[in-house]
């Protein structure tokens, strides 16, 4: 038996033993385990599951063990992910620190920064958010104006950040700030970490069309930040930001997997809401065609993700293919959202009412919230610009 | 499941790309339009020498047993230059049909002859203009020393240039299903077999065949291996058509990409305009998905995976839709020159337009995909 097979058996047995029954199955929005200074848990089982995974470093399985991570190789991490999927285990910890800041620190951080922040991410001690966009800097992110003045031993930050996911609930924020106006706009940007309890930081929630407030606007008014909180070089934050955006887009392209959770599928819901023949055929041919079209696209996207994995193993990676995944995954998810609400009729349009069932509430909420997916992390239009430039080598236009 | 070509398949792909662009470029297709030939015999004999006619033939009958993915790679590369040959109709589909028949002297001899290039064959199954693979009205009744055949087949590719046509048929007393059907070996030029050529927009050889009271010998009737045989042959034909659609689309796309990087209007390369960039970027995403799904379907049919029919319906539907998008956009982005016969772009559109219909359109394959998925 290979080491990897042995690891799989060991992992399988450990998960069977240690993942509480209630922590298997689809995650409800209320069941997500978040980190934080004053961490609370959805349930006692959730705490137990988190603590067991944390102690093995498996909240961040690919982080090095010296920073309290799992220290797993890519192949082992894949095994762990597959075994968790097999049992349908809930994520033991969800945070932007894990998939975004952590990898950036590993690539660009100093030894002190890694030792300070990575173990806290692994152990869920702090909740992180991201400060990139500004009211005047959305798709044109590099034109950001939030200013950090060099005051000798510290920076003084003034300005604002917007569309910060979970800004209200977070403890620390990683930000892009302007440290210079000389030269190209990308070259005067610095990547900096800010404790949100620092005097002068204010956060305001933004109400969304979905009824949720997952985004916030963060205001900085003469906020003092020590200089050793800069990640990478001063004025070179754009390099860090680009690397981090890759992780963000990868995370978003994976969102489209298993959104309904559990075993409820779009065809199942179609049969329930539209009806089917004795043989199980959806009775409305146009819905049936639209559903098959969507299911095919999801299958193609999933297989293409798998193809890039196989190409990487065979060292024949086409590095342009990952560029297309965020655009495709998020667009197709919105196709599903609209189709599902169409099928449910009025039942898919419930707003602030108790009488709708869980699938119906979820359909409405996701229809509205998922409009964010083709905007956040680089709009679809920006993604197409990137594909046109990098994959197709098309010439730069007057506005691109 | 393999979604990446292995070393041997990659080498085959490279040599195929070189072969088609040097020996059988689009100008060769244009030259053949001026003649009544279905394909150039000399080009085909070179392909035979390269071993391409024996890719699917079993080793013990003189073949290479290289696998369907290799054949798919050839179909993709051949479609990029609109190459005309019996590669798909004979070496892919007819050989697949014979592979799924029970061994017999006749079958084995024919497979060897197809591998060596001594003969070519065509596969005649469909009977209606709209794709409906479950209809078989062609009948074979027992007669003295053999069988008496009646029926008609629609739009058979390369039938008139073939030495043998493989005709699917059923007994007069049986309702048709795969398990009791069979394959008849018929000379398309024999008396009693009427074949009428039909010219389609892709300017290739197709014929409707009608057979009335035609007698064949006992050993000219072959039995299918099992109840799933016909489905597997149809899957082979369908996924090869999808490969050709992918090749046409990829070529039209790459030529368009070159054109927009070169053509200037308003003082700029038109490829710098976002209105074109976004459409081309979207087409690229669809071509990448198609590549994945085609490799998956080839491997599914080759390995006789349980979900092979589903994978094939997926591949053909996506190939149809992507080819429609890419080849029509190719014409549009070329502007006026795109609708001239002088430029090749319109030829790729016309070939793709035919292939989108052959072996099932997207509505058919989405419906089939839904049925196979249980809805």
What does this structure look like?
The complex is a heterodimer of chains A (400) and B (375). Chain A has helices at residues 3-18, 44-56, 74-87, 96-108, 111-122, 237-254, 266-273, 285-313, 321-344, 358-369, 380-391; strands at residues 128-131, 147-150, 154-165, 172-178, 189-195, 201-206, 215-226, 230-231. Chain A is α+β, with helices and mostly antiparallel strands and 400 residues long. In chain A, the strands form 2 sheets. A 4-stranded mixed β-sheet of chain A has the order 1-4-5-8. In chain A, a hairpin with a 3-residue loop joins strand 2 and strand 3 (154-165). In chain A, helix 7 runs parallel beside helix 9 (321-344) and helix 8 runs antiparallel to helix 9 (321-344). The longest helix of chain A is centred in the last third of the chain and has 29 residues, at 285-313. Chain B is α+β, with helices and mostly antiparallel strands and 375 residues long. Chain B is built from 11 helices and 10 strands. Chain B has a 4-stranded mixed β-sheet, with helices on one face. A 4-stranded antiparallel β-sheet of chain B has the order 2-3-7-6, with no helix packed on it. Chain B is globular. Chains A and B meet through helix 7, helix 8, helix 9 and helix 11 of A and helix 7, strand 10, helix 8, helix 9 and helix 11 of B.
């Amino acid at each position: 038996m290979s080491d990897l097979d042995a690891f799989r058996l060991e992992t399988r047995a450990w998960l069977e033993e240690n993942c509480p029954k209630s922590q298997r199955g689809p995650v409800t929005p209320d069941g997500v385990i978040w980190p934080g200074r004053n961490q609370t848990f959805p349930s006692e089982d959730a705490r137990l599951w988190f603590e067991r995974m944390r102690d093995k470093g498996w909240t961040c399985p690919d982080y090095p063990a010296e920073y309290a991570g799992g220290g797993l190789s890519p192949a082992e991490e894949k095994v762990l992910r597959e075994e968790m999927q097999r049992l349908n285990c809930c994520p033991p910890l969800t945070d932007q620190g894990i998939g975004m800041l952590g990898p950036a620190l590993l690539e660009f951080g100093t030894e002190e920064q890694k030792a300070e922040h990575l173990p806290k991410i692994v152990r869920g001690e702090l909740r992180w958010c991201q400060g990139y966009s500004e009211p005047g800097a959305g798709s044109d992110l590099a034109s950001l104006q939030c200013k950090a003045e060099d005051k000798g031993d510290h920076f003084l930050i003034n300005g604002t950040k917007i569309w910060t996911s979970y800004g209200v609930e977070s403890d620390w924020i990683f930000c892009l700030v302007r440290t210079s106006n000389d030269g190209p706009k990308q070259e005067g940007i610095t990547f900096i970490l800010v404790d949100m309890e620092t005097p002068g930081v204010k956060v305001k929630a933004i109400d969304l069309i979905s009824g949720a407030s997952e985004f916030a606007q963060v205001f900085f008014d003469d906020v003092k930040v020590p200089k050793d909180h800069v990640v990478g070089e001063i004025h070179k934050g754009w390099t860090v930001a680009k690397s981090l955006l890759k992780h963000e887009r990868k995370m978003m392209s994976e969102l489209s997997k298993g959104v309904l959770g559990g075993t409820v599928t779009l065809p199942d819901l179609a049969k329930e809401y539209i009806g089917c023949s004795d043989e199980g055929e959806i009775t409305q041919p146009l819905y049936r065609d639209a559903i098959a079209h969507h299911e095919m696209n999801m299958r193609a996207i999933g297989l293409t993700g798998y193809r890039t994995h196989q190409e990487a193993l065979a060292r024949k990676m086409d590095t342009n293919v990952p560029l297309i995944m965020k655009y495709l995954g998020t667009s197709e998810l919105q196709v599903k959202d609209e189709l599902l609400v169409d099928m449910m009729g009025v039942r898919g349009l419930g707003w602030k009412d108790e009488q709708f069932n869980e699938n119906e509430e979820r359909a409405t909420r996701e229809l509205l919230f998922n409009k964010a997916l083709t905007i956040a992390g680089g709009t679809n239009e920006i993604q197409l610009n990137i594909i046109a430039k990098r994959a197709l080598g098309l010439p730069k236009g007057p506005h691109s | 499941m393999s979604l990446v070509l292995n070393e041997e398949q990659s080498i085959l792909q490279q040599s195929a790309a070189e072969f088609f662009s040097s020996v059988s470029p689009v100008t060769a297709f244009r030259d053949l339009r001026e003649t009544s030939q279905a394909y150039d015999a000399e080009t085909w004999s070179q392909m035979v020498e390269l071993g391409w006619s024996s890719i699917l033939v079993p080793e013990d009958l003189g073949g290479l047993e290289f696998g369907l993915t290799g054949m798919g790679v050839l179909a993709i590369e051949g479609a990029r230059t609109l190459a005309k040959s019996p590669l798909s109709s004979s070496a892919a589909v007819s050989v697949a049909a014979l592979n799924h028949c029970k061994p017999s002297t006749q079958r084995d001899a024919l497979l060897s002859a197809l591998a060596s290039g001594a003969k070519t064959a065509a596969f005649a199954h469909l009977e209606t203009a709209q794709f409906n693979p479950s209809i078989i009205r062609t009948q074979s009744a027992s007669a003295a020393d053999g069988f008496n055949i009646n029926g008609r087949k629609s739009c058979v590719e390369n039938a008139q240039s073939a030495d043998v046509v493989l005709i699917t048929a059923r007994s007069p007393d049986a309702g048709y299903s795969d398990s009791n059907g069979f394959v008849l070996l018929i000379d398309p030029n024999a008396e009693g077999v009427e074949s009428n050529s039909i010219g389609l927009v892709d300017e290739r050889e197709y014929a409707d065949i009608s057979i009335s009271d035609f007698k064949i010998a006992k050993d000219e009737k072959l039995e299918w291996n099992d109840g799933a045989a016909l489905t597997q042959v149809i899957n082979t034909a369908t996924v090869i058509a999808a490969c050709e659609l992918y090749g046409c689309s990829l070529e039209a796309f790459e030529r368009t990409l070159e054109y927009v990087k070169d053509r200037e209007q308003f003082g700029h390369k038109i490829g710098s305009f976002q209105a074109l960039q976004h459409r081309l970027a979207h087409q690229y995403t669809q071509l990448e998905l198609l590549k994945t799904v085609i490799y998956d379907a080839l491997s599914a049919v080759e390995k006789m995976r349980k979900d092979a029919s589903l994978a094939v319906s997926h591949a053909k539907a996506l190939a149809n839709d992507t080819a429609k998008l890419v080849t029509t956009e190719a014409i549009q982005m070329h502007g006026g020159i795109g609708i001239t016969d002088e430029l090749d772009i319109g030829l790729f559109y016309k070939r793709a337009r035919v292939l989108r219909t052959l072996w099932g359109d997207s509505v058919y394959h989405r419906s089939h995909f839904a049925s196979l998925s249980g809805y």
